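Bench log, entry 3. Co-assembly request; chain sequences pasted below exactly as received.
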Amino acid sequence: MSDADDGIDPVSVFAEGDLDLRAGADSCYKCSTCDTNCPVAEVDEDFPGPKFQGPEQWRLKRKADHDVDASVADCSNCMRCDAACPADVPLSQMHNEARAEYVEEQVSRRSVRYWRDRLLANYRTVARVASRVPRLSNFLLGSRLLRSLGERVFGITAERDFPRFATETFRDWWAARGGAHVESEDKRVAYFHGCYANFNSPEVARAMVRVFEHFGYQVAVPAQGCSGTPMFANGMLADASRDAERNATALSTLVAEGYDVVCSCTSCSMALRQEYPELFTYEGIESVANSTYEALEYLRIQEDLEGALEEATVEFPDLAYHAPCHARNQGLDRQAVELFRPLEGVEVEDVGDSCSGISGTYGWKADKYDTSMAIGEDMFEEMRASAGETGLTECPTCASQMEHGTGYEVRHPLEVLEAALVED
Amino acid sequence: MAIDQDVLVVGGGLAGVSAALAAAETGAHVRLVATAQSTLRQASGLVDLLGYTPRGEGPLAEPYEAIPDLPAAHPYRRVGRAGIEDAFDAFDDLVGDAYAGDHTTANALVPTHGGLVKPTARYPRSTAAGLASDARDALLVGFDRLPQFDASLAAETLEASGVPFDVRGVTVEFPVDLGADPTVTRFARLLDRDAPVADDASLRSALAQRVAGHLDGEQRVGLPAVLGEATPDDVRASLAAHLGVDVFEVPMGPPSLPGIRLEQRLYDALDAAGVRIETGNPVVDFDAAAGAVDRVYVERSGTRVPYAASEFVLATGGLVGKGIDSDRDGVREPVFDCHVAQPADRYEWFDDDAFGDHPFARFGVDVDDELRPRDATGEPEFRNLRAAGSVLGNYDYAAEKSGSGVSLATGHRAGRLAGVAAG
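Structure output for the full assembly:
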């Protein structure tokens, strides 16, 4: 009876939509491990957790025309559920899809909330304007009156200090120094700096360039949009799609010329590697995803970074390291501590596996601020207990949460590498 | 270039951890890579050796006595009694007071959440007062918001199995008002924190008060295994102090607190031993030359990252853990494509009786005495690749209750051989 199955293929019984998530929903055997890893469910009694947001809701919707439950907007898109799942259910992809559908069908275009989320999602546009007049922007955004107005009228929390805009953006610095200082036929990287390292923390981007040039790489800095991370998280898939097309086009052209793509922000690398191919089909998406690396990860693969660090010494304050959730999902959560352990002159301590709680724009929303801080409490406590009184992380928004909760200055692993390896 | 080490262990469960620790002990530079969070979170936390023979005889009081009669290809026969004892000694040293049953050869009988009794070699200290061989009467207590543990049903099932004591089951309301579908970790962390609830009583004392009303002379109380994540000993001790009787945990299905606690302890031990750890991405491919594996490729969200080593240990799990994969056309080991023996007709993979003797339960790689997977002709697939845990074939861990023991024993042996070969 080995031909008993002929004629029926159980995977194609149902009509399929644009993106078929059936296999993923079927893989879920409801073990609830994802729910035990969800930082929002941990502090918010009313949040039903990733298992509901993903496969359960997907199944419900197959049977009847249910609306997406509003609680999907409470998901912070930390993506921890992805790494927790023993059955490879594409949870964050399901959440991204559901959130986009929710915003599209249920959030009024005339609501303040829609425009607040749209504005947060399009931080790059805001930052581009603000950084033309950085001193004025910093002054205005620092003003108590404006911040309190922002909270009351717009729902952006007044509790946080706005990130300061650099007086010289990374791209301005790059242009002023005349672009790349090293040329190479075979060692070429295209730097996806993202928004934050360009407008707010150009010292990280400069460190990236100096470290890679130290190792003999020709660095290219292509024109680029936002990676899309804040757009996915706010359900603004049309905005994300627009920037993804632009980035895929620019970066895939360089990939075809032998460049690999390198990011300093782990959420940017996450977007290029995982979310782009999950959500979009533009030409070049796959080749970019297959050629994108986080900066330290790339050097670990291509160079004897460990050997270089073993011979180096550095003058740096002792560090309390927090692994961003998106770094965790790329398997990079132990990388910085592992690399810097043998480096003389600095002690690095991992402050544990809790989430910082800010999740990009999430913690900026007045209605999410308390949740964000409650999630971050474990990390704050661990940081205070750690010997180092300076923070270390790859993610710029985790960094701002670490600063906000502890008052510590926060540095990026590339800055440690620069201090250890690059001569002034 | 590639990320380089002496020994690369693929898999982060009990077998992988055991292998990595044993390899590190030889002085080798070891890295462990795993696809996702450790499956120890799904494990009951009980560490079985052998509960039943392959013919279904048992529960076994003395598992070691049954080893010589196991089939010649059984993983325990590959490592031998000394190999098993080495691995359990190493485990005992590692977990210290957190586990009971250490340094004995006999099995204990631990009641689990369905009311069944499991023969097991090592068990969390938190379950120790619950043993079925203990003659003291017991009260099982479930929580209204935790349907995974039905205390009355468990008590009835236990009684029916003929335990030498009286046991009743009751359900109490958990003293904190919880939302829909609370997770097991939610209960555990609340009990860790022990914040005041109504009338300024702490959570633990409020819970004890609710339980106390149901006590009728029983000298021990069993609660679902959610009694704390970080401080289980404190939670249990304060409940016991309030109640004036012993308190024990009843192991539950996944996700499991005893499993999570064991994971934490083992991963701390890996850190302390200097083992590098990377989780979150699968090994998808490899390069080999001249009969040896040269490197494997970890796929990180699109990009392939090469990891080179002189010795490799495959500990990716079995059919459930996806270390063995199958579809209608066949059964395979997906990382190195090691030989997996199987009937050509897939209708011979299983028995028609649901609880029958299923051939698929024994599917997996066949290894030589050095735990190197063998090809169809019986020769090692690669001279520097060893396998451990449920990726191995020729045994049915679910029926035998031998899963943890095989993982510990083969992991320990494979890791040590790999470490020595790399040195």
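Residues 75-95 of chain B form the longest helix (21 residues). Chain B touches chain A at residues 1-3, 33, 36-37, 39, 41-42, 178-181, 183-186, 189, 254-255, 260, 276-281, 298, 300-306, 321, 328, 345-347 (CB under 8 Å).
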